[in-house]
From TrEMBL:
Cellular component terms per the entry's GO annotation: cytosol
Nucleus recorded as keyword: no
Single Gene Ontology MF annotation: oxidoreductase activity
Taxonomic classification: Bacteria, Pseudomonadati, Pseudomonadota, Gammaproteobacteria, Vibrionales
Keywords, comma-separated and alphabetical: Oxidoreductase
Identification of the protein by name: L-glyceraldehyde 3-phosphate reductase
Organism: Grimontia celer
Amino acid sequence: MFPIILGTAKFGTYTSREESFSVLDGYLEMGGRRLDTANNYAVWHPDGKGGESETVIGEWLKSKNRNDVEIMTKIGAQSVDGFTYDKLDGLSPSNIMQSIDDCLSRLQTDYIDVLYAHVDDENTPLIETWKTMSSLVEQGTVKALGISNFKEPRVLELLDVINQNSLEPFKYVQYRYTLLSPNIDAKFSPQIVMNEHLFGVLKHLECKPEIIGYSPLLDGCYEVSPDELPNEYDNLLNAIMVEELQMQAEESETTTSALVLKTISDYGVTPVTAASSIERLKDNLKLLI
């Protein structure tokens, strides 16, 4: 299996349609198949309303063989006010059904390879959410299910719900993950950062999901000065680690981003990574393909 999943969160907003098509074509030519998107990408862009990424993928797919691509999309984290994450549309049965119809329309397809519950909805009983998600698999609209940004107790509670009601298991789990540890006061909500404890729990789940990490390269921060880390990761230990990684990469005649992705992959986490150009993507994957 190709070692990374292509992140498409910026397609149609930060990355133009033409640039997005170029990256998608190049990724496919390299042997990649899996595309990571969501119905709320990229609501945080000044002109974004959500759905832009799926729309670009759908337009691109029209000239491709649908079976050559695996589309992994997510629902439940669309901002209700369009600006903040204080209130999300959630995972009620009615919103799931409306969301999947909208996703299929934007993607111009009749099925989704992997559907994620993007952010846990604690206002909707898990049994209601997962019965509806499972029904989409039963009818063939979705091939497999995943969860993203669920806290450990809720993951275990969901497993009990699935086992007790003979529902469809989740085969994928996705969390924020990189080699640097965030500052203790860093705030990412509603995103959840995967730490060593959570990784251990996920690794030993009886359903054996694939563990996927998003934002592994922190928007290129491994390629800049260690003094310019994002605020959430700006501390001395991280600066030292970045400096050491940069030295290792230079000695190996590769990019620091490539070294980071290789390290994460070797650890047992599948990275979701994006690139604004196919050249940058190839540089990032030097040690993986």
